[in-house]
């Protein structure tokens, strides 16, 4: 009977982690997509500074342009955050929380890397998700989706290690110092204290 309770308890956090991670991934894309658009267009403009049409496209306020590629990005980013959250919970059973979070980030780069490439190309060309994938495969082969994977993994190790490993640790440290849970969580997201 105690085995059944443990099985139910292990399934419940998995689904909670999966849902919470996926929902926060979609919300993040919704909030950040316009900034990502301007960053990508600014970078492209600096590389292709001779193109007046590209410079004119950068400062649009049209939701159609700002959110170009957001569907594909959300369709990959939501599972990425869900994967990070679930993997972190699994890895935390065998290693310290910071290492578990960092490893979860590295694992998620396999999903993040191709998704970001497709989104950036969609923003530049205005083509659909499938058209963009076909063009990338035709021009550079399927391996193009994994170009830069090591750098993406490094970024995700730092990002996921911070938000899933370091932030909860810092929150507990601030609570031990007498902070209420809400302020402790906010401070943990902004400040690092040595152990």
UniProtKB/TrEMBL annotation:
Source taxon at top rank: Bacteria
Cellular localization per UniProt: Membrane
Membrane-topology annotation of the record: Multi-pass membrane protein
A GO CC annotation given for this chain: membrane
UniProt key word Transmembrane helix: yes
Location, primary (coarse class): membrane
Membrane-crossing residue ranges in chain numbering: 18-38, 65-86, 98-120
Keywords: Membrane, Repeat, Transmembrane, Transmembrane helix, Transport
Protein's UniProt keywords contain Transmembrane: yes
Any one Pfam family match given in the protein's UniProt record, by short name: Mito_carr
Family, per entry: Belongs to the mitochondrial carrier (TC 2.A.29) family.
UniProt protein name: Putative membrane protein
Protein species of origin: Estrella lausannensis
């Amino acid at each position: 009977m105690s085995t059944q309770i443990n099985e139910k308890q292990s399934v419940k956090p998995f689904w909670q982690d999966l849902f919470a991670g996926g929902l926060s991934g979609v919300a993040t894309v919704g909030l950040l997509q316009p900034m990502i658009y301007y960053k990508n267009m600014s970078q492209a403009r600096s590389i292709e500074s001779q193109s007046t049409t590209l410079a004119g496209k950068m400062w649009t306020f049209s939701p159609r342009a700002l959110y170009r590629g957001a569907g594909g990005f959300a369709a990959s980013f939501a599972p990425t955050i869900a994967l990070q959250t679930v993997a972190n919970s699994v890895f935390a059973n065998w290693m310290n929380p910071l290492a578990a979070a960092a490893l979860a980030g590295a694992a998620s780069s396999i999903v993040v890397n191709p998704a970001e490439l497709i989104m950036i190309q969609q923003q530049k060309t205005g083509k659909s998700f499938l058209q963009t994938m076909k063009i990338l495969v035709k021009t550079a082969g399927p391996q193009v989706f994994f170009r830069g994977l090591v750098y993406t993994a490094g970024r995700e190790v730092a990002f996921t290690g911070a938000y899933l490993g370091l932030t909860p640790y810092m929150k507990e440290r601030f609570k031990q110092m007498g902070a209420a849970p809400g302020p402790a969580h906010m401070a943990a997201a902004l400040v690092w204290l040595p152990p």
